[in-house]
């Protein structure tokens, strides 16, 4: 880091207030409105950058996990990155991110994920597109009122412990889904901090064998009444049918339904026509912080016994440079340094390969990886699986 900037994980009370003011301005809200956000994350999870002893920007870190190949990989979610307007263009944001990445590596975090306001900054820091966040929209009249194969149990959404185990069963099957921490769960069950909004929650199935849940609210937008599904988990076909029927039962008062899911949503298979559309979509980004730990922590397809020889380049973390041999057996990976270096890939390309957002062939086409061997086929076998997505923003 240049002597122009100073990175710190320790903030005094005056610096906390300075950071609150900067981030409130950056994100177009008031200090009063961001107070709950600071309490939710915890001030010890904020980082700042100073110049001349003055706070000029900062960010927040969510310590949680992300599911890949059926395994939860420890992950640092980066949020609320902001630099005071008068210090933008000075390199402060890049120094803030670089120092954060170095800290994460020193503490043994394998991967980091974020939502980017601008890709240029985060690509410079080694992040790349890695998965999708999609909001679907459907006219409620497009949902048929079917049977009700499972009972519903209305519960208090703030008691999110009721949902955790059900969610975990679904999340581990979907690459990119979060292994949520307390802060993410609290944002999920109380999604709108600034506005008064009633949130409803229902468990699906028998109490002794729950098959899912749904958390939603009702609001009006442009004279339309909308159900916003904040979160859901559905473990069986019967639960999926009950999900749709519950929404259809609101058709006398509701016009449209919004819910979050992947780009190719299997829930749509039970609808009679193709009336749903993606209302909003963006790609979140991921960085491989520690190549060895990241490759060893994720899961791989069972029944495959093979080796993948990688040669990785990373301008920021020296330990990530060089050749690595990934040996996979019984769904687990073991990494040793060295090997043949048959597949050459930069740290950004490795992020997209790791999550499965793009196939090895697609990454080769766009120049993100190079190989002239059968390593391409091996990579296809190892990094296959569900298209990576998450229902959470942070």
Elements, N to C (H/E):
EHHEEEHEHEEHEHEEEHEEHEEEEHHEH
The percent of residues in helical segments reads: 25-40%
Mean pLDDT over the full residue set: 95
Structural class: alpha+beta
Determine the strand fraction and express it as a percent band.
25-35%
What is the fourth-level CATH superfamily of the largest domain?
Answer: Gcn5-related N-acetyltransferase (GNAT)
What form results from the Cα inertia axes? globular
Number of domains: 3
Number of strands: 18
Low-confidence stretches: none
- Please describe the biggest sheet, giving its number of strands, its sense, and whether it closes into a barrel: 13 strands, mixed
Distance between the termini: 27 Å
Q: How are the secondary structure elements laid out?
A:
Blueprint: E1 6-8, H1 13-26, H2 31-41, E2 46-51, E3 54-68, E4 71-83, H3 92-106, E5 111-114, H4 119-124, E6 128-139, E7 152-155, H5 161-171, E8 178-179, H6 182-189, E9 199-206, E10 209-221, E11 224-234, H7 237-248, E12 256-261, E13 277-288, H8 291-297, E14 306-313, E15 322-329, E16 332-337, E17 343-346, H9 347-355, H10 360-365, E18 369-370, H11 375-382
Parallel strand pairs: 4-5, 11-12, 14-17
Antiparallel strand pairs: 1-2, 2-3, 3-4, 3-8, 5-13, 6-12, 6-13, 7-9, 9-10, 10-11, 14-15, 15-16, 17-18
